[in-house]
Structure formats: C-alpha cells, structure tokens
Amino acid sequence: MSPAPIINLSGYRFIHLDNLPELQLRLKSALGSYGMQGSIMLASEGINVSLAGTAHAATLTREHFDTDPRLASLWLKETVSATVPYRRLRVRVRAEIIAFDGQDSERLQAARPVAAAISPDVLKQWLDENRDMTLLDARNDYEIVSGTFPQSTHLDIKHFRTFKAAVARQIESGELDPAKPLVTYCTGGIRCEKAAPWLLEQGFSEVYQLEGGLLNYFQTCGDAHWQGDCFIFDDRVELTTQLQPTGAGLCDYCQLAVPAGTHCRCQLGRH
Fold this sequence. Notes:
Elements: E1 6-14, H1 20-34, E2 37-43, E3 46-53, H2 55-66, E4 77-81, E5 89-93, H3 105-110, E6 116-118, H4 120-128, E7 134-137, H5 141-144, E8 147-148, E9 153-154, H6 163-173, E10 182-185, H7 190-201, E11 207-210, H8 213-221, E12 227-228, E13 230-231, E14 238-239, E15 249-250, E16 257-258, H9 265-269
Parallel strand pairs: 2-5, 6-11, 7-9, 7-10, 10-11
Antiparallel strand pairs: 1-3, 1-4, 2-3, 8-12, 13-14, 15-16
C-alpha cells in the first residue's frame, strides 16, 4: 500500500497583527504538536505560511488558524508530495513577511492604494486575446529559468529587495511603459500584493496582480500559455503545471533547479 500523500499548505494575509511573541509561541506549540513542518513568518503587517504534514495535521492546522479572528478562513493553497519538503518547523517574527520596504512596513502598506486582482481565468482570456499589456514576472532570475510566460517582461533580479531599483531602471530605459496596463505575477501572490500598490505610486495607470499567483493559475488553467515548470522555495524545488514535483534538485552554487540525474550547467562551466 502506498503511503498517504503529504499535504503542503501555502498562503499569506496582510492584516495587522499584535502580540507577535505570544502568537509565535502559540503557533509553534500547536502546529508542532500536530507534526507540521515548514515556515511561518509573522510581522505587524501579517502572516506568510509554508507548511506540510499529513492530511489530518493539515486539517488541524486550518482549524487552529480559524480560532484566531485575524487568521480565520486564511486562504491556504494545497499541493501534495510523497514526503515532507521541510526539515523542521520554524515560526519567526520579522519586520516584514516578505522583504521589500524595511522598517515600519505596516504603516507604509496601509498608506498605499490597493491594486486590483484578476483571476487566472481572466488572465488566460487576456492572453488568448493577445491583449496589449505588460505581463511582469516579479520573481527572481533563477526562478524564471525553470519556467515563465514567454511574453513576460523580466527584471533580472536575484532578490525581491531589488525589485524597486530594477523597475525604476526599466522605466527610465523605456522597457516598462507606465501608460500600458500592467499585470504582475509571482509564485503564490505575496510579492505582487506587496509590490502592486508601489507600482501605482510610480505612475502606472493600470496595475493588476494575479490572484493567488502561479499556484492558483495552474490549479485553474493548467499549462495554458506557460512554458516550463515552476520553481518553489522548499525541498521539492520545482513543480509541474499539474502541481507535481519534477524531481529536480537545487544547485548549491547558483541556486538553479537541476533535473534529476544531471549536473548543473554552472558546475559544468567551471571545469
């Protein structure tokens, strides 16, 4: 008999959270007792979740989040794997749940306009129509190597902290046109939700973010318009558009996904 699959949960919510050390201890104790592993980031601006465990543990985890009104009905997208792709459970308190602004992020986020979200179905329709827009891949360069929408604009960044500078350079060079509708996407949506309000401040006339990110797009639209696989930040390294692990490993030197049974191109180039 095959072992029961592991349920992977990922999601986030931008919402004011206080008493962070208390929340940290409570989540670590409860989820640890269920056998969940993975990572939770807490900040005054919200929560970012990447967890894995048995189906029963995942159900208990959802129920525990629901006991806190601030976290109730938290949208946690599910994927499955044969094993747990994390080595331990970590619940950490940080200045931001995704590095972008620095200190006092909650105040900055609250002061910004909110960009509209579009569903995967709408994005697919726009791509079907070849609509005149800029499709901005907000991910890092090593993620994009695994797969992307071919018509995307890429920022050639190695970390989301340099997103602002990269956008500013491309506006100045004319590669990004603030007058053209802009649709941003990333793996789970958190980077785009953080960046989209800032993009509006930079003078873009229309800014949209892909609701639920690529994981939601693949769940809804499969591989439509997509080329390749999808890099993720756990031991699975890559998922197919059917949300199954590709079996790839991770190069310790350059952080690129490496297909099973092969050597990374950067390692070959160094010999």
